Amino acid sequence: MDFKEAFALNVNSKTEDEFVILKNNVRISVITNRLIRVEHNNKKLFVDEPTQKVWYRAFSSPKFSQAEKGNSIIINTSEVEFCCDTISGKVKYITIDKNKITNFKKGNLGGTYRTLDMTRGAVKLGDGVVSKNGATVFDDSASLILKPDGAIEPRKNSEQDKYYFAYGRNYRECIKAFFELTGYTPLVPRFCLGNWWSRYKAYSQQEYVDLMTRFLDEEIPITVATIDMDWHWVDVVSKFGEKAKRKVAAAKNFREVIWEHGWTGYSWNTDLFPDYKGFLKWLKEKISILPLIFTLLMAFGLLKICMKLWQNIWGKIHRTDIELILKYGTLNMLKHILNICIIHMKKTEWIFGGLIGNKAKIQE
């Protein structure tokens, strides 16, 4: 299976023309009676393709009227009135139940937090799409565009691309509209609710086999097995010499300062796992473990053999991609792989964390 076949997108992301208003450098799409999209671009180059955040923009057939007043256009639906500046693309106000709202951040009830790594205590959540004042704005201006062949590309022009939710206190309908816009995610599969084994320990291959065998003998079901970071080489200096030591003095950011050499890697520790292929096969055949998790921290380097292994296992990266990755460095490689993984998870209706979070479809 090639890249295009694996990651091609076929989604209805374009709003029908009858629900679109174009004035000056501003395009307004009326998506529902309580949700509009406002784009501003000086060259009138607007986006109809799906983006990292938004995949669907044609899931409703709202009825509305429009009227111009100076440099403003006023859109009325059966539920809400939107007033938008046709020069700047700024939404001046939203009226819900005779309540005119001009501050779309006030009263926001918060969204999600991507990760709790490096945190202690309470964390400040980003904005969500529900608010006590009834109106919120969801900014999609910076997200990448997803092409029909599965490629990812940045927006070619600086632009504004915002969605205005005006659902008042009807939070359930607001979240449902958000799911319709971004795509649904099902509940987690049942095996995720079973027993997970995870321990931060440098297991050897035989130790892990013995441990899993004991679980089997004791009739303790394990549905997810985790091997922490020691599956790859950790003490790289002792193993490969000073040439493997990263120069902390040349670190470019805080992460590189605190993460010493050995915290990451893609090469199996063959001292601990002399036959890792046999090990993985044994787990699958004898224990019938569905997922096997390997801790993979942000990388600062990798070996060519790893890329070949990745290609053989996943079959998702072209040979030319591997050569480019090796030529242009690890950071670009990671961006490439992460983007591929994100698209794959969205195509299979899985997204963890981030802005969208792990969404469960709302039942009527």
Quick overview:
With 364 residues, this protein is an alpha+beta fold. It has helices at 3-7, 171-182, 205-217, 236-240, 254-258, 276-287, 304-314, 319-328, 330-347, and strands at residues 20-23, 26-32, 35-40, 64-69, 72-77, 80-85, 91-96, 99-101, 136-139, 145-146, 152-153, 160-165, 196-197, 224-227, 292-294. The protein is elongated and about 75 Å long.
List keywords for this structure.
364 residues; alpha+beta; five-stranded antiparallel beta sheet; 25% helix; elongated; disordered C terminus
Distance between the termini: 38 Å
Measured on Cα atoms, how large is the radius of gyration? Answer: 25 Å
Strand content: 15-25%
User: How does the overall form come out from the CA principal axes?
Assistant: elongated
Q: Flag low-confidence runs.
A: 254-258, 298-331, 340-364
How many strands? 15
Separate helix tally: 9
Helix/strand order: HEEEEEEEEEEEEHEHEHHHEHHH
Strand order of the largest sheet: 1-2-3-12-9
Largest sheet: 5 strands, antiparallel
Percent helix range: 25-40%
Which structural class best describes the helix and strand composition?
alpha+beta
